[in-house]
Specification:
Layout (H helix, E strand, L loop, with lengths): L1 E8 L16 H13 L6 E2 L8 E10 L8 H8 L4 E9 L11 E9 L11 E2 L7 H10 L23 E9 L4 E8 L6 H14 L4 H10 L14 E7 L13 H6 L2 E3 L2
Parallel strand pairs: 3-9, 5-6
Antiparallel strand pairs: 1-3, 1-4, 2-3, 5-8, 5-9, 7-8, 7-10
Length: about 270
């Protein structure tokens, strides 16, 4: 039998999703407690990798098991898991279902704050620079819908089978106080380090350090960037993963208080 887990996690204390040697990861932690609760060795296949410190509001992972899980499985596993990981659902799926290869689209948000704020330090990237050209950032982020070659914005492009990605949405929001930004991206796939590199470049455009012409050039040619301006990982949140058989809304949104107060305004 194959089950698909619907979960979320705070990545602050983890070295990303993927199991690695001698570092704490989300995958390793989940597999440990799942194996204890289900009393057999459990190995997970996740919907993608996340870097150290990156968060996931929605994430899917599948595993195989010979017998059906117990009816109180969610209660038992969530009771054992640390507070920064939660499983919201466990869905039986076809044996050929795959958490990674079946994904139709992924959505990420990157949060930026311009002034040091302790309450945001683990979930938003600090960028203490004046943004002079908001309109240029808006124009630049809309360019992502016009191109599909992202070799220039991949940390290790030579290790990828392809650097083609298809964006279906890309938006920029500012908060009511005007000292915070949110970048939203949706695409069929993302490359290693891609969003952090893109956000860094977009902020440099807002600062006047990078021109729109240069940004368009790298998108159209894939030429290597002269300087990598990757932003810090803690501001990045995987917010939505769509599978053809599990189109489930996330249980919560990053910065729930902000979402409820409708403080975010889209920039045009």
């Amino acid at each position: 039998m194959r089950y698909m887990l619907h979960l979320s996690y705070d990545g602050t204390k983890y070295h990303g999703w993927q199991r690695q040697v001698k570092v704490k990861t989300v995958q390793e932690t989940l597999e440990h407690y799942l194996s204890e609760v289900l009393k057999q060795d459990i190995r997970l296949i996740g919907c993608g990798r996340t870097d150290a410190g990156v968060h996931a509001t929605q994430y899917f992972a599948h595993f195989d098991i010979e017998e059906a899980h117990h009816v109180d499985f969610l209660f038992r596993i969530n009771k054992r898991l640390p507070g920064d990981i939660a499983i919201h659902g466990c869905h039986e799926v076809e044996l050929n279902s795959h958490a990674r290869f079946d994904v139709l689209s992924r959505s990420y948000s990157y949060f930026v704050h311009l002034h040091k704020t302790p309450s945001l330090s683990m979930y938003s990237g600090l960028y203490p620079h004046e943004i002079k050209y908001e309109d240029r950032m808006v124009r630049a982020i809309r360019m992502l819908l016009m191109y599909n070659e992202y070799r220039a914005y991949c940390r290790r492009p030579d290790k990828m089978n392809t650097t083609i990605c298809h964006f279906s949405d890309a938006r920029l929001y500012t908060y009511a106080s005007s000292d915070r930004w949110r970048f939203d991206f949706t695409a069929n796939r993302f490359l290693t380090g891609m969003i952090r590199l893109l956000v860094g470049e977009l902020l440099a455009i807002g600062q006047g350090l990078v021109s729109l012409e240069s940004f368009a050039h790298h998108l159209s040619t894939g030429d290597t960037l002269e300087k990598h301006r990757a932003v810090d990982p803690q501001g990045l949140h995987l917010t939505r993963v769509v599978l053809p058989y599990l189109n489930i809304k996330p249980i919560s949104a990053p910065f729930d208080i902000d979402a409820q107060s409708n403080g975010w305004v889209e920039m045009h």
